[in-house]
Design a protein that fits this description.
The chain has one domain. It is built from 8 helices and no strands. Helix 1 runs antiparallel to helix 8, helix 3 packs antiparallel against helix 4 and helix 4 runs antiparallel to helix 5.
Length: 151
């Protein structure tokens, strides 16, 4: 069976692919939540994932449950990450609200080259859906390498 952290990252890729197709309704903003004129959808990676069980628009009074769900996903992602790497830095580099915090967490993992840290858009600016997908694919690759080395 595939590793849990890898399955979670793969699920986030599927979410980002869906959101990319639905960009007129789903804006990606890592630091917050989309304005009401965008249907009240969550805007960050885990926020979008929190809405995937029901693609219907969420009203403002439902945001508390979305925050709770997104935070639960964050904890689950962190815990699965710890099972592989003993820390949660790689998980935090996926969903951190600010690019400098994502980059800092990625740097703490010691998994990335200097070139990767400098050139990955997910770690250096407000990312697009493609940037997040690219990063998640690299995270999966780095995780697979770590699991192979540990075996």
């Amino acid at each position: 069976m595939e590793n849990l952290f890898i399955r979670q990252c793969s699920a986030l890729i599927e979410t980002m692919l869906f959101c990319k197709r639905e960009q007129q309704n789903r804006e990606l903003i890592m630091v917050g939540w989309v304005e009401e004129n965008k249907c009240g959808y969550a805007a960050c990676v885990l926020g979008h994932h929190a809405t995937m069980n029901d693609a219907a628009p969420f009203q403002k009074n439902d945001l508390i449950s979305l925050f709770t769900t997104a935070n639960l996903f964050a904890k689950q992602l962190e815990n699965a990450c710890k099972e592989v790497f003993v820390n949660n830095y790689l998980a935090k580099s996926i969903y951190g609200p600010f690019y400098n915090s994502r980059c800092s967490h990625a740097w703490e993992t010691n998994l990335f080259t200097d070139e990767e840290l400098e050139n990955l858009n997910h770690l250096n600016k407000e990312p697009s859906y493609d940037d997040v997908i690219e990063y998640l694919e690299l995270v999966i690759h780095k995780t697979e390498q770590a699991l192979e080395q540990a075996a």
